Amino acid sequence: MSYIIEFKHVSKSFGRHKVLDELDLQIPKGRITFILGKSGEGKSVTIKHIMGLLKPDEGRIIVNGVDITDYTIEQLRDYRKGFGMLFQNAALFDSMSVGENVLFPLIEHQRDKMSIMLERVEEVLTQVGLPNTQHKYPPELSTGQRKRVGLARALVTRPKIILYDEPTTGMDPLVSEMIDSLIVQLSREEQDLTSIVISHDIKAALATGENLLFLYKGKLALGGPPKAFKESTDPVVRQFFAGRVEGPMEFF
Amino acid sequence: MNEVAHHPLLNLPYRLITAVGSLILRYLREWIQFIEFLKEILVWSIKPPYRWSLLLSQMEYIGNQSMIILIGGGIAVGAVFGLQIGSIFRVFSAESMMGAVTGKALCQEIAPLVTTILITGRAGAAMAAEIATMRVNEQVDAMEAMAVDPISYLVVPRFLASLVILPLLCAVFIFVGVIGSYIAGHFLFNIDEGMFMQKITTLVETKDIWRGISKAFAFSGLMTAICCRAGLRASGGAKGVGIATTNAVVSTLLAVLAVDVVMTYFQVIW
């Protein structure tokens, strides 16, 4: 199995609080990987390291075989063009219409003919089930629709890696199901697309994830396919997956 | 012995020095970070991509949409200042000098300062609030994730638009201020129109206008940089947006007054 992202002994502290503690992890190429863990375990910090938005205090980060740890701001800007990211609240620009939101990364980076770019916008909006919505503005959309527009914006530049930051948090079960199905559908449609999902949703992780990474105390407590988690006898893993308050897991 | 050394009264000078020292260090750090921010704005101002449509829309927002407030403010300030000066000069039967003195004061001091205060209240506060809202709603993070520099996209168009528009607004303020002063002089002190204009052209020099315009230019850059920086540093939801906006306005006004003192000093001694 080839890995697209590797963390080698990555540590990161904020003040006295060590969030990542010599973390080693690998994310396989072309698969759906879920990063799991309770709040404050460093899931978002991990994703920010992948995006180059944070630098580790120690350790190396290898992406596509290239060490990005010491990239300059200019190098990072180019590097980030290969990613798409869906934010927790979609983070759409309120002052722009749906069409302009999705067009934004294309205008900034690809600068093709406008007709080609608009065609691509229509294509991805159809892909996420929102055709002919270009003229609408974010406040006119439901939470689920905003998420899907955010997903269209993440997809529009045809990235090889998509990061989903808690895509179903705060959503009703139907919208959650729809977003999960979209993640799977996109992963099947786009060749070699690597999807990295930060989530608390254990059910979705077991149902749609092909590779799961469970973080605890800044380290990788367990990594592998869903089957490994279902069969795990580790008391911390069992407690998290059972959603129990009683157990060895520490709460802050 | 140890108890004596830790007595609160004996510790007082030490604590005072530590507090003053850390305060000075904090302000120094703030200034260094602000200068670095300014440097980044300047670098992005000359570096592509050039966002012409954003620049034009900001110019329209800062300039065109502020015009009514500015004209109203200019006439009122000119008239009030004219009234005050006229009533003093009347004692010496020198009311005819009212227009010239008002014009000189408007050009050198009042117009750049009041224009900046008005535009800070209207456009500067809006800049801080808009960018702060984008920051707390992760829109700025989204921009960074899409490999777009927020300084290049959000700050530079506002900065350049302010640099162009504020000096022009200052010139408009001078013009309408003089009209306000003329209205007050003509109707309350019966000053002749020809006399009013003749005194202005005698006393007010071109360099007075340039002094005011150059101040407006400097204040505009300062205002935009402070307001945008406050917005980008916002955190913590709606309360954070409020704090950022208040900080932006207060810091801009204090900084503008401080820079005004320095610029006036150099303009006077040169």
How would you portray this structure in words?
The complex is a heterodimer of chains A (252) and B (270). With 252 residues, chain A is α/β, with parallel strands linked by helices. Chain A has helices at 43-51, 73-80, 98-109, 114-127, 143-155, 173-189, 202-208, 226-230, 235-242, and strands at 3-14, 17-28, 32-36, 58-63, 66-67, 83-86, 161-165, 194-199, 211-216, 219-224. Chain A is built from 9 helices and 10 strands. Chain B has one domain. Helix content of chain B is 87%, strand content 0%. Chain B has helices at residues 2-5, 8-46, 52-62, 67-91, 98-136, 139-145, 150-189, 193-203, 206-232, 237-269. In chain B, α2 packs across α7 (150-189) and α5 (98-136) packs antiparallel against α7 (150-189). In chain B, 40% of the residues are buried. The interface between A and B is medium-sized, with 21 and 14 residues.
Helix content of chain A: 25-40%
Give the H and E element order of chain A. EEEHEEHEHHHEHEHEEHH
Poorly predicted regions of chain A? none
Between the first and last Cα atoms of chain A, what is the distance in angstroms? 37 Å
Largest interface: A-B, 21 and 14 residues
User: Which ranges of chain B are low-confidence, i.e. pLDDT below 50, for 5 or more consecutive residues?
Assistant: none
- Oligomeric state of shown chains: heterodimer
Helix content of chain B: over 70%
SS element count, helices of chain A: 9
Q: Tell me the structural class of chain B.
A: mainly alpha
Q: Indicate the overall shape of chain A.
A: globular
**DSSP, total strands of chain A:** 10
In N-to-C order, the SSE pattern of chain B is HHHHHHHHHH
Note the gap between the termini of chain B.
Answer: 61 Å
The averaged pLDDT of chain B comes out at 91
**Secondary-structure-derived class of chain A:** alpha/beta
- Proportion in β-strands of chain A: 25-35%
